Amino acid sequence: MTTISIWRWPTPNGLPPLPLVAALCAVLGAMWFTASLVEVDWVHLVGSLGKMAAFAGHFLVRPDWEYLPQLFDKMLETIEMTVLATAIAIVVSLPLGVLAARNATPHIVVYRVVRDLLSLMRALPELVWALVFVSAVGLGPLPGVMALALVTVGFMGKFFAEAIEVVDHKPVEGVRAHGAGWLQVRLFAMLPQALPDFVGTVMYILDHNLRAATILGLVGAGGIGYDLVMAMRLFQYDRLILIALAIYLVVTLLDRLSDQLRSRIIHGARA
């Protein structure tokens, strides 16, 4: 009886509501009929599992340990690009996020202009912006940092604005009632409430930027990306396995760091 009750919906008959079932069927039907537009062939997909397994088998090789010093240097360059681009984006996107929040912006026109600006920044992927900056400043990590920072401002500004828009209005009214000014209300009433979301957003962006930075090497924008692409083109699986493992370890460490920071901030706020 306990197992059956778990699957019962909070409806009089215990079944899913009809509008939900109809909407789900409509979505699944639309996906089925439009699968040909994106060339989704389920038979071919199932038949290609063997090829995918054969490709994965190439990674069962002895790693090229002599490549480790070069891998360390390239990964360090990628991490530096990621951290620097994210730090620049935080400084720029925090005031833009305040101006892009409905409950914090000084005027609706400012809100709309900043929102459109953030949309423009994230409209194109990092790889396209990297091509633009490579043509402007040349090859190297600098165009990669510029591309990552620009796109990150677009995403982070939007995330910051949405975090500010959902803060509790009672502390805001309390600070305002004590005679606080426009900037003081935002600094001491809104931003502290949104701080846990800010930290989570920053750590997520770090994770994203690290993975994005590995691809920017494809267009000469620095980092481990160039070695990754060349290892795939030259079938150097002994190097490719080390590159993939290094990226995985760094991303995992960032994830653990994010959990600890959020936990400390949340528990500290409750205390």
UniProtKB/TrEMBL annotation:
The chain crosses the membrane at residues 17-35, 81-101, 127-151, 213-234, 240-257. It is found in: Cell membrane. CDD domains: TM_PBP2. GO terms for molecular function: ABC-type phosphonate transporter activity. It is a multi-pass membrane protein. Pfam families: BPD_transp_1 (PF00528). The keyword Membrane applies. PANTHER family: ABC TRANSPORT SYSTEM PERMEASE PROTEIN P69, PHOSPHONATES TRANSPORT SYSTEM PERMEASE PROTEIN. Belongs to the binding-protein-dependent transport system permease family. This is Phosphonate ABC transporter permease. It comes from Thiobacillus denitrificans.
